[in-house]
Design goal:
Shape of chain A: globular
InterPro entries (chain A): Amidase, Amidase_dom, AS_sf, GatA
Pfam family, one (chain A): Amidase
Strand order of the largest sheet of chain A: 1-3-2-4-6-5-10-11-9-7-8
Oligomer: heterodimer
Family (chain A): Belongs to the amidase family. GatA subfamily.
Structural class of chain B: alpha+beta
Number of helices of chain B: 13
Function (chain A): Allows the formation of correctly charged Gln-tRNA(Gln) through the transamidation of misacylated Glu-tRNA(Gln) in the mitochondria. The reaction takes place in the presence of glutamine and ATP through an activated gamma-phospho-Glu-tRNA(Gln).
Keywords (chain A): ATP-binding, Ligase, Mitochondrion, Nucleotide-binding, Protein biosynthesis
Distance between the termini of chain A: 17 Å
Number of strands of chain A: 11
Radius of gyration of chain A: 22 Å
Order of helices and strands of chain A: HHHEHEHEHHEHEEHEHEHHHHEHHHEEHH
Chain lengths: ~550, ~500
């Protein structure tokens, strides 16, 4: 346990461990003392249960923060009215002493590609601007059923196609760390003539809005979606925990699909314990999604590991890709050392087909995109062009006006791969390669490896102005390279914020676990989280609006 | 020889002119096929004979309470768009959930058609844009369908003589489960299209028959047999007029020994009678086209029942690439048999092929054999009894209530009752003479109480022919040696007959 000798190296000046104790009235009983006393407790309920803050107050504070961080562009829709109503209901339950559970009264945000009844669901596309779904996605319904307060819908790349959250019709998401003291101190203005905020960095994507929303303390948890890394990538860039569960563990019903065979609802939280709580509330068979597993899911509290000596951590050599920044490489190898020094077995392993993963992903992804987007014809819902010469011309104009170039580009290539003359050469081959990639993982885990440890991004977040110099396709290819293999194989993977870069920006690492072994995966992630003591973001806006309640417990394990 | 099999059909068709008002009368074609389906030289024209080849694709709507992948109700003629779930309207984020009842119906049908049931079958997406296909694709089973390699035996009579029946077999290539589309109504006057999604997503079984047929009559007989099987199984109501059974015919012609000709697909056939017409017309059209030095184009044609001819379908022009892709939202469909059934499995969750097999009802062919065996009637009579709606039940009801031998009963039913029903397009269930009445009548006849001509007259009256009553009065007066009051006799008879 006392491997803190190693962990201490990770600490940086200004780390606020268990920062922001009580409220101004001095009541500091909010914090839960005793490491590992009760692992899977959501951070805020203690305060709620003890009546230190009411759900309505908590909701109002979050809404205020949403407003004051509006420049982040994290939210597309803020559902203030319904959120306050939900908070009020929650308050009544607390008054009766009958809260629905850990999530009751907890403000959450949902990526805008999950259907929410009565609240606009846009996918950041002109095609669905103004679209109000008549039903809730299963995951949204489950959160609401457990009393969570839905603050709003978060920004993304159009239809989740991107890795920067820069390609949606509502504009790019700004990474909250761009405005942190940590980053500001390190970044040198590029020139005097440039406006002050031209240095802001991307949030990553495509669930950048959700990651930014959690990172900026506007909510306690957010839903993302993860098809090729869309939850883990922005989590890494925004310094939050991003969990992509095993395919089939959480219902996709109501998630507007990108690639059905790889999409998984993702969970973004401030700490690993919180991710476990949210997972517990979402996982399980859904009769509305035939690809969810039938097995009954038992929600779990994460134990606090004290002994990692029985663990076998695999370091896949193929993840040492060209373009990986030396900084990330250093953090990765330090993390490996951390495990080694704590007594774990750290083994270099090989996933030989990793190199083919990204091209294979490209074919499978675009093919499904082409198919999934076919329904947007302007007839039943969504945008419809005024063009009325013929049904065909109406379809064409509707789709031209409704979809961005990125979306149309993917539809075109997907349709190309699916043409009769190309199907065998592209789609079928890609499926075979996908099987090989999945088998790579099966072999590695079969050889006794428990968890794989890999980098998740090639570098820390880059400035928006740099990011948009390359097109979406190039960026997605680069950025998904370390993440999408887990989607191809359907495995659970999690980003754990690990360290700050030289520029004061978050760096995360990825843990990949065995299928349906989320508990083991998160237990290890939690141990690691504790060792690295990732610093808390220092945001002016948060300080202004918070007297400790919002960020006093960044992580349960801190308290 | 030339008079055998379908040859007769061609002659009749030719004499009438197959085009109806569509085309002028045609010259005789050297075309024929015999009962075995081979080409037969006609001889007299001196031209090489043509061999027509007919294959069928039949869509049967599955009888089930809800749709194939959604919980929406299935109902004919409900108010437009009243039976549409979010999935049926393809709202983003909705997913298909397979209806077990539809799977069982397909397994049942597959077994009845002697198919191999695939223990693992897959679903695919077939893409095309159409207003009544809201998802932009249809979920079907293109790669691995639920049932394959079956056969269907059917019988038809030669030269329209009931006494000359032949039995033929058509191979069943496959049965696949798929979604029905919605309906589009084109309002040309206002240049708009109205879409009704009630039918969208209803479960269909597509039965693909190999091109083993050679004329409209064979196609019709095969479809009629299939229809009876589906109705017996209850897997489809198979009413063509309601669109529950839709038949597309693939037709081509070639010379013997040569490869198959270019085929056309004929759609919009909504009765068995029209199927015969459509196929025969199309065969003649192709022959004429080819003999005039033209070519047959691979196209989709629609049968125009008013004009009695086939016409190219304009909106089906151009080759479609359906860009098939596995349906990622549905896991493979796994079926079990007694051997593979895992222990401690929830029986509500699995479909057991053997269980279904054991519970198959008697198929029409078995019913016919049983009728022949049980009642000693002729095989051809058993066909009529089984093939006509409700007639077998009617016959058996009568037999149960009368001392008359079934062999004699059948004569009354087929020659007297059926011809009347046919004249008035009635089914046995709608017969103005109930099975009770006919049984009573036949009993009187059997006991010698009335003569056969009196019985026939009673039937005629019951069938609506009031004039015959005078003949009956005459018979009564004769029997009472003129002592009965004719007016009273008439009153009593009328009362009795209206019972």
């Amino acid at each position: 346990m006392e491997s803190l000798g190693v962990a201490a190296k990770w600490r940086r000046p200004g780390v606020r461990c268990g920062a922001g104790t009580g409220r101004e009235d001095g009541r500091s009983g909010v914090r839960r003392r005793g490491v590992g006393r009760h692992a899977a407790r959501f951070s805020a309920p203690a305060a709620l249960k003890e009546g230190q803050i009411t759900p309505t107050e908590l909701c109002q504070r979050c809404l205020a923060l949403v407003r004051s961080t509006q420049f982040l562009n994290a939210y597309i829709t803020v559902a203030e009215e319904t959120a306050l109503k939900q908070a009020e209901e929650s308050e009544k339950r607390y008054q009766r002493g009958q809260p629905l559970g850990e999530l009751d009264g907890i403000p959450i945000a949902v990526k805008d590609n999950f259907n929410t009844a009565g609240i606009e669901t846009t996918c950041a596309s002109n095609m669905l601007k103004g679209y109000i779904s008549p039903y809730n996605a299963t995951v949204v319904q489950k959160l609401l059923d457990q009393g969570a307060v839905l603050l709003g819908k978060t920004n993304l790349d159009e239809f989740a196609m991107g890795s920067g959250s820069t390609d949606g019709v509502f504009g790019p998401v700004r990474n909250p760390w761009s405005y942190s003291r940590q980053y500001k101190e390190k970044s040198i203005p590029r020139s005097d003539s440039e406006p002050e905020n031209s240095n802001w960095v991307i949030a990553g994507g495509s669930s950048g809005g959700s990651a930014a929303a959690v990172s900026a303390f506007t909510c306690f948890a957010a839903l993302g979606s993860d098809t090729g890394g869309s939850t883990r990538n922005p989590a890494a860039h925004c310094g939050v925990v991003g969990l992509k569960p095993t395919y089939g563990l959480i219902s996709r019903h109501g998630l507007i699909p990108l690639v059905n065979s790889m999409d998984v609802p993702g969970i973004l939280t401030r700490c690993v314990d919180d991710a476990a709580v949210v997972l517990g509330s979402l996982a399980g068979h859904d009769p509305k999604d035939s690809t969810t597993v039938q097995d009954i899911f038992q929600p779990f509290a994460l134990p606090t590991l004290t002994d990692v000596s029985k663990l076998s951590i695999g370091i896949p050599k193929e993840y040492h890709v060209p373009g990986l920044s030396s900084e990330i490489l250093a953090v990765w190898s330090k993390a490996a050392d951390l495990f080694k020094n704590a007594g774990a077995k750290v083994v270099e392993v090989s996933l030989p087909h990793t190199h083919y993963s990204i091209v294979c992903y490209h074919v499978l992804c675009t093919a499904e995109v082409a198919s999934n987007m076919a329904r947007f014809d302007g007839l039943e819902y969504g945008h419809r062009s005024d063009m009325s010469k013929s049904t065909e011309s109406m379809y064409a104009a509707t789709r031209r006006e409704g979809f961005s170039d990125v979306v149309r580009g993917r539809i075109l290539s997907g349709n190309y791969f699916l043409l009769k003359q190309n199907y065998e050469d592209y789609f079928v081959k890609a499926q075979k390669v996908r099987r090989l990639i999945a088998n790579d993982f099966v072999k590695v885990f079969g050889s006794g490896i428990d968890i794989l440890l890999t980098p998740i991004t090639l570098s820390d977040a880059i400035p928006y102005v740099e990011f948009i110099k390359e097109d979406n396709r190039t960026r997605s290819t680069q950025d998904d390279i370390l993440t999408q293999a887990a989607n191809m194989a359907g495995l659970p993977a999690v980003n754990v914020p690990t360290a700050l870069s030289e520029r004061g920006l978050p760096i995360g690492l990825q843990f990949i676990g065995r299928s349906f072994q989320e508990k083991q995966l998160l237990t290890v992630a939690k141990w690691f989280e504790k060792q690295v003591q990732f610093p808390m973001i220092q945001l002016e806006e948060v300080k202004k609006h918070d007297d400790g309640v919002l960020q006093h417990q960044k992580s349960a394990s801190f308290s | 020889m030339a008079a055998r099999g379908c040859g007769g059909v061609w002659r009749r068709a030719l004499q009438r002119g197959p085009g109806g008002s569509c085309s002028a009368s045609r010259p005789r074609r050297a075309v024929a096929c015999n009962a075995r389906g081979g080409a037969v030289p006609v001889g007299q024209s001196g031209l090489a004979p043509w061999v027509p080849v007919v294959g069928l694709e039949i869509h049967a709507q599955i009888t089930s309470n809800s749709k194939l992948f959604s919980g929406s109700q299935v109902q004919f003629a409900a108010p437009p768009n009243s039976l549409v779930s979010f999935f049926d309207a393809s709202l983003p984020g909705t997913l298909p959930v397979l209806n077990r009842r539809c799977v069982e119906a397909a397994v049942m049908t597959g077994l009845a058609l002697n198919c191999t049931i695939n223990k693992k079958s897959l679903f695919d997406r077939k893409h095309y844009f159409y207003a009544d296909l809201p998802a932009g694709y249809q979920i079907t089973q293109q790669r691995v369908p639920i049932a394959v390699n079956g056969s269907l035996s059917y019988s038809l009579c030669i030269d329209n003589k009931m006494s000359q029946m032949v039995t033929k077999t058509v191979r069943i290539k496959q049965i696949q489960l798929e979604q029905d589309s919605g309906k589009s109504l084109h309002d040309d006057a206002r240049s708009q299209t109205l879409v009704d999604l009630n039918r969208a997503g209803v479960g269909l079984m597509e039965v693909v028959m190999e091109p083993d047929m050679c004329c409209g009559e064979e196609a019709a007989a095969a479809v009629r047999e299939l229809q009876l099987i589906l109705q017996t199984l209850g897997s489809s109501q198979a009413i063509m007029a309601e669109g529950q059974l839709r038949v597309d015919a693939n037709v081509s012609v070639h010379h013997p020994g040569e490869p198959y000709g270019v085929r056309t697909e004929v759609k919009n056939i909504n009765s068995i009678r029209f199927l015969t017409k459509a196929v025969d017309y199309e065969i003649q059209r192709q022959i004429k086209e080819l003999e005039n030095g033209g070519t047959v184009v691979n196209e989709t044609r629609a049968f125009d029942s008013k004009l009695g001819c086939t016409v190219p379908m304009r909106d089906k022009e151009g080759k479609q690439d359906y860009r098939f892709m596995p349906e990622p939202n549905l896991p493979p469909l796994i079926l079990y048999d007694a051997k593979s059934l895992p222990a401690n499995v929830n029986h509500q969750q699995v479909v057991n092929i053997d269980w279904i097999h054991e519970r198959l009802p008697d198929l029409p062919s078995v019913k016919r054999a049983k009728l022949v065996e049980l009642y000693g009637i002729l095989p051809e009579h058993s066909f009529t009894l089984v093939n006509e709606d409700g007639l077998m039940e009617f016959f058996e009801d009568v037999v149960k209530r009368t001392q008359m031998k079934p062999k004699k009963v059948i004569g009354w039913i087929l020659s007297d009752l059926l011809s009347h029903l046919k004249q008035h397009s009635l089914t046995a269930n709608e017969s103005p003479i109930s099975s009770f009445l006919l049984a009573d009548l036949l009993n009187l006849l059997e006991n010698g109480d009335i003569s056969s001509s009196a019985a026939k007259q009673v039937m005629a009256i019951k069938e609506g022919n009031k004039k015959v009553i005078n003949k009956l009065i005459g018979l009564v007066r004769k029997a009472t040696r003129g002592r009965a009051n004719p007016l009273l006799v008439k009153q009593i008879l009328e009362k009795k007959l209206s019972e």
